[in-house]
Each structure stands twice: as structure tokens, then as C-alpha cells.
Design a protein that fits this description.
Order of helices and strands: HHHHEHEHEHHEHEHHEEE
Largest sheet: 8 strands, mixed
Distance between the termini: 45 Å
CATH superfamily of the largest domain: Vaccinia Virus protein VP39
Helix content: 25-40%
Length: 282
């Protein structure tokens, strides 16, 4: 078995090939399943593959960007665990990748870490329940909810059954906010207002700063697939932070440049049109 999931064949990355729960409309492309396709997975359907192939024509570096986005998530989680954070709320989970998920990275540092995953695609949730198995000292839970309705997350009993909201936790929104154009600031304010001081917010967001024409084509292609999305400047990403939250080092950075491994070979920012950041509630 190859050492990295990104070295595996699509067949090795598959979890459940050709299956969909009856309540999901697989005739429409879904961003999580398109992302799975970019990573070489097989939890996707003809509409997802068609939309993804069109997007790859518009922006050929999408596979690099998807890999770097997942790598950013894992570095972010490990960094937070090293800081002592043992609770995570991961919104927009996406299709799981075996061994490369939030609880895998966190529980490798703190086995008792507790994680709540949130997504609104039944396929994601079905695969999460099958694959996201916690270390016996910790816990994982899964909520079927939409980030566009923050109260459906905050009011869900599994949230408070799994996480202690009176203690600091890490809220993760990795490659989620671009898909709620015009509402990101409002949603973040609601999700973060009741979190305990000392909590962290980690997110990534698409930008057109490095390749305006390519990202414009990408946004147009997603729109043609029925998916609305947006790009923000570096300043716009920083301005997403709610009142009472402050950036922590290294600030807003192109994803591969956010706390990279010392020996990492970093791709050109043009290939990874996204920023990442980490902030702390004071």
C-alpha cells in the first residue's frame, strides 16, 4: 500500500462505489463530490464528474489545489492539537479520506480529542459514519446540517453531547465559506458568538489574487453547474473575522505557505488560489 493517500489509485481511494442513498439527487453536481473527484476518489456521480471536468478545463490546477487544501487542514489540526486543543467542530466535512481527516490528525497528538463533523450531503454523512472511527479514548459525532443555517448546528443535541462549549474548541471551515457568497460574515458571527474565550477559528477561502482570469473562469463554470461561489482578496479574507477575534501567526497566507514543513516544496500560488488563516477568541 502506498504511503500517502494521494499516491493511491482511484480504486484504492474508493469507499462505496456507485452507491447513493435514495434521498440524494445525484443528477446535480455537488461541491463535496467534485472535490472528491479532484482527489482521485470514486464517491462521485456523472453530474459531479462532468462539472469537475469542465472546472478542470477552466482551471487546470484544481487537483493541486484540492491536495493542498487537505494538507492545510491536517497541518492546522496538528498545530491546534500541539497547542492543547482537544475539541473540534469541523463544518463542511466533505468526503472522508482514509487516515487524513480531522480526528486522525488530532487524536495522533491527543487521543482523547472529541470531534463533531457537520455536512448536509447524505453521501458524506454515510461515508463519515463508516470511516471516521474515533480512537477509543476520544469521540466523533456527525450532524446533518447546513452551514447556511447556523442554528441547526448550534442547536443540535449531538453538539453539546460531544463537545463542552464552556471550554475552548477549534471551529474549522476549510473551503466552505466560498460557497455561501455574501453571507460568510453573518454566518461566522453567529457560529462564533457563544464560543468560549481561547477558542480558535481556522478557515480557508478561494482568492483571485494570483490568477484573476483563471479564477473568474472557474467561478463561471461552477455557476453553470448550479453551484454559486466567490473569491476574496487577502484583505477580504482577513476581514471575515468577527469582532473579538484576532489573527495568530503566521496570519493570512497562501495555503502551502501556512506553516509548511521545513523541507516542503511549495507549489506556485497560481496553482493554489486560496488563503488560510487561524484566529483566536480573546
Amino acid at each position: 500500500m502506498p504511503g500517502s493517500v494521494f499516491d493511491r489509485t482511484p480504486e484504492q481511494n474508493a469507499i462505496v462505489e456507485g452507491w447513493a442513498p435514495p434521498e440524494i439527487d445525484v443528477s446535480r453536481a455537488h461541491s463535496a463530490r467534485m472535490y472528491d473527484y479532484y482527489l482521485g476518489g470514486k464517491t462521485n456521480f456523472p453530474a459531479d464528474r462532468a462539472g469537475a471536468e469542465q472546472a478542470l478545463v477552466a482551471f487546470p490546477h484544481l487537483r493541486v489545489g484540492a491536495r493542498e487544501n487537505r494538507a492545510f487542514l491536517l497541518r492546522l489540526v496538528r498545530h491546534l492539537a500541539d497547542l492543547g486543543i482537544d475539541q473540534f467542530l469541523d463544518i463542511g466535512t466533505g468526503i472522508p479520506v482514509e487516515g487524513r481527516n480531522t480526528h486522525d490528525a488530532a487524536q495522533a497528538v491527543i487521543p482523547a480529542t472529541r470531534v463533531v463533523y457537520v455536512d448536509n450531503d447524505p453521501i458524506v454523512l454515510a461515508h463519515a459514519r463508516a470511516l471516521l472511527t474515533s480512537h477509543e479514548a476520544g469521540a466523533t459525532a456527525y450532524i446533518d446540517a447546513d452551514v447556511r443555517e447556523p442554528d441547526s448546528i448550534l442547536g443540535h443535541p449531538k453538539l453539546t453531547e460531544t463537545l463542552d462549549l464552556d471550554r475552548p474548541l477549534a471551529l474549522l471551515l476549510v473551503s466552505v465559506l466560498p460557497f455561501v457568497p455574501g453571507r460568510a460574515t453573518e454566518i461566522l458571527a453567529r457560529l462564533t458568538e457563544s464560543l468560549a474565550p481561547g477558542s480558535y477559528l481556522g478557515l480557508s477561502h478561494m482568492t483571485a489574487d494570483f490568477d484573476p482570469d483563471g479564477v473568474r473562469r472557474l467561478i463561471d463554470t461552477y455557476r453553470e453547474s448550479g453551484i454559486r461561489t466567490q473569491a476574496l482578496t487577502e484583505k477580504g479574507v482577513a476581514e471575515l473575522l468577527p469582532s473579538g477575534w484576532e489573527l495568530v501567526e503566521p496570519g493570512v497566507r497562501n495555503l502551502p505557505q501556512w506553516l509548511p514543513a521545513p523541507d516542503a516544496e511549495l507549489p506556485d500560488p497560481v496553482q493554489v488560489p486560496a488563503y488560510g488563516l487561524l484566529a483566536r477568541k480573546v
